Amino acid sequence: MGDSSDEEYLGTDWVPYSERSDWKDVEPLAQDDGPNPVVSIAYSQKFREVFDYMRAVIARGEKSQRALDLTTDALRLNPANYTVWQYRRDILRELKADLNAELDYLSEVIGQNSKNYQVWHHRRVIVEMLNDPSNELELTENALVNDGDAKNYHAWQHRQWAIRSFKLYDDELNFVDRLICEDQRNNSAWNQRFFVIKHLGFTPDLIQRELSYTMNRIRIIKNNESAWNYLVGVMRQGDSGKARLNSYPEVVAFVEELYQAGNRSPYLLAFLIDLYQEQALQLKAGDGDQLARKVYGLCEDMASKHDVIRRKYWQYVANHLKNQLSKVQKEEQ
């Protein structure tokens, strides 16, 4: 940590612990890097002093208000220090502290460190201790929307935990739909939609609704990997998770219409390859030759034009289908 960072977090009027009368009884404990450290980190004087006192407090097992205040200083300097977070929780339990005040503190810390796992984990523990998730959806919405990072993994993870643990599903689809409308390529929002739909249960009516929703999104942006992945994911959930892509004729008609209209999105072509493979392997030997030729042609297009970086994969897909069809033919003879 540099001095400028320390000044920002602790302020220029910060008083060293070694000069505080109420800390005279504590002997700071320096970090032991051994006699010959390979790399000595150039900690600032403030950083070194705060953590020397932090180590001393932990070593003596002190759980007091001043120790809690010390963890606040330590976490301002290094909010990713899991040992300090754990000790802070121990102090909070010992003091029977106001956990709502702790949530207010965490909201401030998360506002400055929204991608810090330790902060979010601490928040989860405090919410569990309170058994009160009433602020969590708003908190995560602020992190995802107001802070301009709609793909913040930690915020999404915390949101899913809160929703799942406290049954907060009721309005989540509306929230997700709003994010998808704002950015249809937001894979995190599509993933959240699947999370909610999975909880609701993949009934035939729900699957049909989601397929229509997704096809409408694809009509707007045809080269949207997130929407195509969601479409396939939902289709696979039909028939107790055993559904094939050709189980939904309206989707088959939709993708073939896009292809006939000249669209060559690699996600569309990949869908057609999977679709025709499945259909070809469902037929008797020889009956699927026309479908197989479609697969070989599409794989060639992918390898040479639309997804060249994965050309070996598409060559493998074509060869694998040839081998499977050959195996089927031998078994039927």
From TrEMBL:
GO function terms (MF aspect): CAAX-protein geranylgeranyltransferase activity; protein farnesyltransferase activity
DNA-binding listed as a keyword: no
Organism expressing this protein natively: Drosophila suzukii (Spotted-wing drosophila fruit fly)
The protein's required cofactors: Mg(2+)
EC top class, as a word: transferase
The protein's name in its UniProt record: Protein farnesyltransferase/geranylgeranyltransferase type-1 subunit alpha
EC number per UniProt: 2.5.1.58, 2.5.1.59
GO cellular component: CAAX-protein geranylgeranyltransferase complex; protein farnesyltransferase complex
Family that this chain belongs to: Belongs to the protein prenyltransferase subunit alpha family.
Pfam families, sorted: PPTA (PF01239)
Stored PANTHER family: PROTEIN FARNESYLTRANSFERASE ALPHA SUBUNIT/RAB GERANYLGERANYL TRANSFERASE ALPHA SUBUNIT, PROTEIN FARNESYLTRANSFERASE_GERANYLGERANYLTRANSFERASE TYPE-1 SUBUNIT ALPHA
InterPro entries given in the database record: Prenyl_trans_a
UniProt KW Magnesium keyword: yes
UniProt entry keywords in alphabetical sequence: Magnesium, Prenyltransferase, Repeat, Transferase
